[in-house]
C-alpha cells in the first residue's frame, strides 16, 4: 500500500493523507507539474480528467474537466496560492459551471501538497485538504448522497444491522 | 423540481443541526458515552463540571439534531445515541478520503510505469 496514514480532524475539518513512493522527489513533483501526467491520475477511470489551462505558479489558474460515461463534462478549477517546487504547493480546488467559469455557489477546498525526499529513491507525499466551513461540508455530503454512493453504503449498513439484530 | 428542492433544503437543515450539535466537546462526549447503551441524564450530569440544567440543555440540542433519543423511565430520563445519525456526519470526510485514496493509488501506478519505462 502506498497510503501510509490517514488522519481526519472533524473539528478542524481537515483530512490528511500520507503516502510513500519509491521514486525521487523530482519525479513525484512531475506528476503534478505536467498536465499530461495529471490526467493519468486525477480522475477515476470512469471520469478521466482533461486539463485545459495549467499554470502552476503563485496566482496561476488550472482548469480541467472530467468526462463521465455518458459523455457529460464536469468542470473544475484550481487557484494556485503558493509554490515551492519540488517540495509542494498550495491551491484552492473548486467547481465550475458548464462553460468552465468558477461556480461561486459551490464550496472550494484548500489543498496543501507537501513532498519530502526520504532517500535518494523515496518520497513522502502529504496531502492536507480543508473544508472552508461546516456548510461546505454539508453541501458536499449532500452531493455525495445525490450521487447515490452514500445511499448505497448506508443501505448496506442497514442490511448488516438487520442481519446482526436477527 | 420544486419538491426536490424542498427535500434538499430540509436535508441540509437536518445536517446543519447535526454539525452544530457536534461542534461542542461536551455534546460529543455525551454521544460517545451514550453509544454503548442507555444512560440517565442524572448520571451524565455528575460527569461534567456544570449544572444539571446545563447538561439537560446539551441533551436537548442533541435530541433536536436526532443524534440521541430520550425516553422517560419513572423519574429518570434515559438517553441513547442513534448510531445512524452519527455516521452521516463523518460522511463528507470519508468521501474525501475515498477520492484521495483512489488518486494516490493511480498516482503510484503512473510513477511505477514511468520508472519501468526508464529501466527498459
Brief rundown of the structure:
Chain A has helices at 25-33, 35-38, 134-146, 149-165; strands at residues 3-9, 14-21, 49-54, 61-67, 73-83, 88-95, 109-119, 122-130.
Describe the structure.
The complex is a heterodimer of chains A (166) and B (120). Chain A has 166 residues and is an alpha+beta fold. Chain A folds into two domains: 130 residues, Alpha-D-Glucose-1,6-Bisphosphate, Chain A, domain 4 (2-Layer Sandwich); 34 residues. Chain A is built from four helices and eight strands. An eight-stranded antiparallel sheet of chain A has the order 1-2-8-7-6-5-4-3. Chain A starts with a strand and ends with a helix. The relative contact order of chain A is 0.15. In chain B, strand 2 and strand 3 form a beta hairpin. Chain B folds into two domains: 84 residues, Winged helix-like DNA-binding domain superfamily/Winged helix DNA-binding domain (Arc Repressor Mutant, subunit A); 31 residues. With 120 residues, chain B is mainly alpha-helical. In chain B, helix 3 packs across helix 4.
Low-confidence stretches of chain A: 145-157
Strand content of chain A: 35-45%
Q: What does the oligomeric state look like here?
A: heterodimer
Structural class of chain B: mainly alpha
CATH topology of the largest domain in chain A: Alpha-D-Glucose-1,6-Bisphosphate, Chain A, domain 4
Overall body shape of chain B: elongated
Helix vs. strand class of chain A: alpha+beta
Helix tally of chain B equals 6
- Broad shape of chain A: globular
The overall pLDDT of chain A, averaged over residues, is 83
Write the layout of secondary structure elements.
The complex is a heterodimer of chains A (166) and B (120).
Chain A: E1 3-9, E2 14-21, H1 25-33, H2 35-38, E3 49-54, E4 61-67, E5 73-83, E6 88-95, E7 109-119, E8 122-130, H3 134-146, H4 149-165
Chain B: H1 2-22, H2 25-33, E1 39-40, H3 41-47, H4 52-64, E2 68-73, E3 76-81, H5 83-89, H6 91-119
Antiparallel strand pairs in B: 1-3, 2-3
Helix pairs in contact in B: 1-4, 2-4, 3-4
Amino acid at each position: 500500500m502506498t497510503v501510509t496514514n490517514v488522519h481526519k480532524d472533524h473539528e478542524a475539518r481537515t483530512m490528511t493523507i500520507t503516502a510513500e513512493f519509491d521514486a525521487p522527489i523530482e519525479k513525484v513533483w512531475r506528476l503534478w507539474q505536467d498536465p499530461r501526467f495529471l490526467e493519468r491520475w486525477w480522475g477515476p477511470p470512469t471520469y478521466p480528467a482533461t486539463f485545459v489551462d495549467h499554470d502552476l505558479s503563485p496566482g496561476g489558474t488550472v482548469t480541467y474537466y472530467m468526462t463521465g460515461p455518458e459523455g457529460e463534462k464536469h468542470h473544475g478549477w484550481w487557484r494556485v496560492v503558493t509554490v515551492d517546487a519540488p517540495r509542494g504547493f498550495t491551491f484552492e480546488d473548486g467547481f465550475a459551471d458548464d462553460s468552465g467559469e468558477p461556480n461561486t455557489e459551490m464550496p472550494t477546498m484548500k489543498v496543501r501538497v507537501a513532498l519530502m525526499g526520504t532517500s535518494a529513491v523515496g518520497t513522502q507525499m502529504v496531502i492536507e485538504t480543508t473544508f472552508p466551513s461546516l456548510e461546505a461540508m454539508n453541501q458536499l455530503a449532500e452531493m455525495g448522497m445525490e450521487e447515490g454512493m452514500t445511499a448505497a453504503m448506508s443501505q448496506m449498513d442497514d442490511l448488516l444491522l438487520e442481519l446482526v439484530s436477527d | 423540481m420544486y419538491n426536490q428542492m424542498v427535500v434538499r433544503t430540509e436535508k441540509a437543515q437536518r445536517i446543519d443541526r447535526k454539525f452544530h450539535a457536534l461542534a461542542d466537546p461536551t455534546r460529543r462526549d455525551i454521544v460517545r458515552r451514550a453509544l454503548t447503551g442507555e444512560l440517565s441524564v442524572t448520571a451524565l450530569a455528575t460527569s461534567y463540571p456544570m449544572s444539571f440544567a446545563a447538561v439537560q440543555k446539551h441533551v436537548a440540542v442533541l435530541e433536536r439534531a436526532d443524534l440521541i433519543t430520550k425516553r422517560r423511565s419513572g423519574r429518570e430520563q434515559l438517553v441513547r445515541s442513534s448510531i445512524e445519525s452519527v455516521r452521516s456526519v463523518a460522511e463528507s470526510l470519508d468521501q474525501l478520503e475515498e477520492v484521495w485514496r483512489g488518486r494516490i493509488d493511480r498516482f503510484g501506478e503512473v510513477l511505477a510505469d514511468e520508472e519501468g519505462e526508464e529501466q527498459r
